[in-house]
Amino acid sequence: MNKNFVHLSISSFMGLSPEATHYYGTLSSYDGKEIISHEILRKMDREDVRLFNKNNWGAVYRVGELTRRFTTEQGIIRIAKKIWRKHFPSSKVLILGRGAVCEPQLIIDIASESLEWFKRKNNILYKRAEKCNCWDNESKMLKICKEWDKLCEKLT
């Protein structure tokens, strides 16, 4: 994991659990010693409270309480873009993906406009990886990953 990167990983139990209806988001980065993580939270509105109280076996929720549950991935991304710099002030880019993956992943935000070049080049490599079906075409993917490694070296 690179300390310049903050990773936003989005997970869900939808498709695995019959009653699952939510997404969850976590920001994580490496501070040089350890991996630091922050769960993405939001305040519940009236509609959330109505649904959660109806579907949660007697639990009682109130408007304004914090929750990890999101109904869309876009809701998580919107909040992550607002808060990642607060939690990781020395990091430079916000990536949609996981820190354990050593290949181009989609950059969704940057700390300053001076990093636009990095975002643009990274996202081109990401699209090339997607186009070749990632590791289904190992020789192309290895070449893309070598280019990405060189690009990341320029970021430090």
Task: Describe the structure in your own words.
- The chain folds into two domains: 1-101, no CATH class; 112-156, no CATH class.
- The strands form two sheets. It has a five-stranded mixed β-sheet. It has a two-stranded antiparallel ribbon with strand order 4-5.
- The protein has helices at 46-55, 73-87, 116-131, 138-155, and strands at 5-12, 23-30, 35-39, 42-43, 66-67, 93-96, 106-110.
- 38% of the residues lie in helices and 22% in strands.
- Helix 3 (116-131) runs antiparallel to helix 4.
- By secondary structure, it is α+β, with helices and mostly antiparallel strands.
- The mean pLDDT is 90.
- The two termini are 13 Å apart.
Topology overview:
Blueprint: E1 5-12, E2 23-30, E3 35-39, E4 42-43, H1 46-55, E5 66-67, H2 73-87, E6 93-96, E7 106-110, H3 116-131, H4 138-155
Parallel strand pairs: 1-6
Antiparallel strand pairs: 1-2, 2-3, 4-5, 6-7
Task: Write out key terms for the chains shown.
single chain; 156 residues; alpha+beta; five-stranded mixed β-sheet; two-stranded antiparallel sheet; 4 helices
Poorly predicted regions are none
Strand order of the largest sheet: 3-2-1-6-7
Radius of gyration (Å)? 18 Å
Q: What is the SS-derived class? A: alpha+beta
The mean pLDDT is 90
Strand content: 15-25%
Give the % helix. 25-40%
User: What count of structural domains?
Assistant: 2
Distance between the termini: 13 Å
Shape field: globular
Secondary-structure element order, N to C: EEEEHEHEEHH
The biggest sheet amounts to: 5 strands, mixed
Strand tally, please? 7
Count every helix, treating DSSP H or I runs of 4 or more residues as helices: 4
